[in-house]
Amino acid sequence: MKKEILLLKHQDDFIKSNYRHTGLVAGFGSGKSHAGITKTVIKKLMYNGIDVAYYLPTYPLVKDIAFPRFSEILSNLGIPFKLNRSDKEFHLPNGRIILRTMDNPDLIVGYEVGYSLIDEADVLPKDKMQEVYTKIVARNRKALPNGEKNSLDFVSTPEGFKFLYEFFVKKPSPNKLLIKGKTADNPFLPDDYIPSLLETYSDEKILAYLEGEFVNLTSGNVYRNYNRQDNNTRRVVKAGDVLHIGMDFNITKMNAVVHIQEDKKHFAVDEFVNAYDTQELCELIKRKYSNHKIIVYPDSAGSSRSTSGKSDHDIIRSFGFTIRGMVRNPAVKDRVNAMNLAFKNNKQEISYYVNDEQCPNYSEALERQTYKNGEPDKTSGFDHITEAGGYYIYQATGKTITYRVR
């Protein structure tokens, strides 16, 4: 029985393209990964006995996205397969679909394929993606039937002026085709999906993450929505307040920002800067706020044990503080986005206030930290205390951003 695959126009254009390099750059939920996986399967069926490869930034994405999506499409097409999870490979009757991560380019060795596809190419820093691209091109060399050229394609959400912008826009060639898609092009999304994104993202991120456009996401001040007047408060710690403390770990530069929650609003009311280590920082907090319940939102790196046998998190707990932590820190852009939305969202609503008299270093850092080479500048010294505040806000506001890869 003939099997059919339903496709959106930009998916169909991408799959049918025979350019040496075709890029599908599109918004969240627009079906980028679905198009990429479908094209990879089609290429595998076309090339009997020739392997193909599919790349994602990290293993969790391979496990959560590639394993189930490839399994679903192969099953729907009635193609028998066996998934080898340890080797990250799908075995089909006529060859393999090889899955690899891009977090360590040195491991992209030891195999040859006839077709390759890179998913979420713009997640990586531009220089690292260039290194990955070079490695993948070297693997993409298996001779194809009828003298066809080996293709290497891309699907991704645009992340500013990074690798895909350089590759397709600044360095166009007759061998390259760039296709764009919008979130709104997908009629199968839940009704509240796009409105929820419009509430979550800044104007620049809406252009990138919904419209699929290349825009500058990393210029100017990092915390551009912070305004010392609009976000100011004279709230201070009172008896009975539960204290929510964001904490960043850096030896000799331990920083913490003390917060209070009231009616879904958040108030930064005190700061601790440049303590020597976790022990000293906790002693300072305990001495000043011994009569308060304290909940700490720490840098996740502090869960690792030191040579003394105690982790930073162990030390925090030894003072009777509660920890609300994450398995790993949020992506920098997600933490920054959560803070900017708390300072002022797209509805002009403010949920995060800073007492600039009690938090002079934090206020200055929020005003002055800028981007450098596309990332928040770490050479100015403003990064430690803003990260401390950000670890709290990221969790407390519930602005957990997940990469939607379709």
UniProtKB/TrEMBL annotation:
<dbReference type="InterPro" id="IPR027417">
    <property type="entry name" value="P-loop_NTPase"/>
</dbReference>
<dbReference type="Pfam" id="PF03237">
    <property type="entry name" value="Terminase_6N"/>
</dbReference>
<keyword id="KW-1188">Viral release from host cell</keyword>
<dbReference type="InterPro" id="IPR035421">
    <property type="entry name" value="Terminase_6C"/>
</dbReference>
<dbReference type="Pfam" id="PF17289">
    <property type="entry name" value="Terminase_6C"/>
</dbReference>
<protein>
    <submittedName>
        <fullName>Phage terminase large subunit</fullName>
    </submittedName>
</protein>
<feature type="domain" description="Terminase large subunit gp17-like C-terminal">
    <location>
        <begin position="245"/>
        <end position="391"/>
    </location>
</feature>
